[in-house]
Amino acid sequence: MNHLPFIVAAYGLGIGAPGAMLIWCIVQMRRAERRTEGEERQ
Q: What's the 3-state SS for 6-36?
C-alpha cells in the first residue's frame, strides 16, 4: 500500500485549513472595522 497519498492529504489539510481560517478571520476583521467606522461617523 502506498502511503504517499495520505501524506500529501495530511500536508494539504495541515496547510490549507489554517490558511483558509486565516483568510476568513481577516475578512471578518475588516468587515467589523468597517462596521465600527460607520457607527463612529453617525
A: HHHHHHHHHHHHHHHHHHHHHHHHHHHHHHH
